[in-house]
Amino acid sequence: MNILKTVLLVNLALLSNLSHALVMPAAGSPLIVDQRETLYVNDGDIFDLSSLSITSSGGIDIFGNSQNASFSIIANSSINIAGYLNLFVADTTLKANEIDFSGILNLIGGGRINFIPDQRMDFSGSIKFDGVSHPLPPREGPLTGPQLPPKLILSPVPEAESYMLLLAGLCVIGLAKRHRLP
To answer: Which pairing describes strands 91-101 and 132-135: parallel, antiparallel, or unpaired?
Structure first.
């Protein structure tokens, strides 16, 4: 059913010419979206930008090449979304030093989004999961716990000690496997 919805929406966008195909700029360049755009991503795509800004009159409909497509947008400075993002992909990651989100985020078909702010996040927009709205209280800083809808994830940047714990755990698993084998 989700694939049928996606196909229908893509055909509607193409036939009625409501949006333009978004061309991603070269790595390290800024991207400003001030109208309705459509972006098609391949599974595993990573877009490296200096900044991303979606104005209040702009927005992006993002479609994946498969039902389980995932992609990332990494901005060296900031991501500012005052318009909308309609995500027809399974997993999206937005990473930047500062993330300001005052627009509308619509996750369609069971997708999820990962926000990774290095320094600051200001989230005063609203989130929709398959059209059902989940407004969040205006707030600056990290979002945690009950403020987060179930498919919205805020990931901290891993610290060095996390990697050390991971390495130690893998060593313990390896030793346990080694001692079990004859």
So the answer is: unpaired
CA distance 155 to 169: 21
pTM across the whole model: 0.66
Q: Residue 117: exposed, middle, or buried by beta-carbon count in 10 A (0-12, 13-18, 19+)?
A: buried
Q: What is the largest CA-CA distance in the chain?
A: 67
C-alpha span between 22 and 35 (Å, rounded): 10
Q: Where are the domains of the chain?
A: 2-156
Report pLDDT digits (tens) over 33-80.
Answer: 999 988 888 888 989 999 999 999 999 998 888 878 888 999 999 999
- Residues ≥6 apart with Cβ < 8 Å to 86: 59, 60, 61, 62, 106, 108
Q: Which amino acid is at 108?
A: I
Angle at 154 between CA 149 and CA 157, to 5 degrees: 170
Strands laid side by side in the 84-88 sheet: 20-21, 36-41, 59-64, 84-88, 104-107, 126-129, 132-135
